[in-house]
Amino acid sequence: MVITFQGDDSFKVSQGELSLVINPKSKISADITLFNVGHEETSDKSGFVISGPGEYEIKDISVKGLLSYTNDKKINTVYVLNFEGVNLCFLGSLTDSELSSETLGQLEDIDILFAPVSNYKLAVSLEPAIIIPTSYTPETLKKFLKETGEDDIKPLDKLVVKKKDLDGKEGEIVVLKEE
């Protein structure tokens, strides 16, 4: 699995011919396109588009969209999905660190968590193997890394990972360079 950062809270996850994008900043080709808040412009290359809560099964990827809200009471869908045996969770624009007990109960066994830097406590409490920070400025990322004691992390161009690579990892922070 290859994970690349498109900026803000936008990522591309791919494995072989299969690709998924979350909150794309431009019209990008993918088999599955997810949006946490609202529905941006898509194209015929966007594949299957998901922009809200529900359960979906697309090309052997199970996607669960869970209801949450932003600070200004907009719907923010938290996505949990299994991609090539790896459990991914995208918190999206979640600005409130408190989720309903129903939603929290569905956020178990997360391998890779994509979390806004403002939600570090929630991210750590979910006990993922890897935390990838999202929705940050250079200043907020620097503060976040300092708070975590990881201020010497060098950003990666991309994260290449297999399920077996996650064994023994607990809350490792991975910062990706914007493509």
SSE blueprint:
Blueprint: E1 2-7, E2 10-15, E3 18-22, E4 32-34, E5 48-50, E6 54-58, E7 61-69, E8 75-83, E9 86-90, H1 101-104, E10 112-116, H2 120-125, E11 130-134, H3 138-148, E12 159-160, E13 172-173
Parallel strand pairs: 3-4, 4-5, 9-10, 10-11, 11-13
Antiparallel strand pairs: 1-2, 1-12, 2-3, 6-7, 7-8, 8-9
How would you describe this protein?
It is built from three helices and 13 strands; from the N terminus they run βββββββββαβαβαββ. The strands form two sheets. The chain has a seven-stranded mixed β-sheet. A six-stranded mixed β-sheet has the order 5-4-3-2-1-12, with no helix packed on it. A hairpin with a 5-residue loop joins strand 7 and strand 8. The two termini are 17 Å apart. The mean pLDDT is 90.
List SSEs in N-to-C order: EEEEEEEEEHEHEHEE
Q: Name the shape in a single word.
A: globular
How much of the sequence lies in strands comes to 35-45%
Low-confidence stretches: none
Cα gyration radius (Å)? 15 Å
Query: First CA to last CA: what distance?
Result: 17 Å
Indicate the percent of residues in helices. Answer: 10-25%
**Biggest sheet, spatial arrangement of strands:** 6-7-8-9-10-11-13
Q: Could you tell me the mean pLDDT?
A: 90
> Describe the biggest sheet?
7 strands, mixed
Discrete helix count: 3
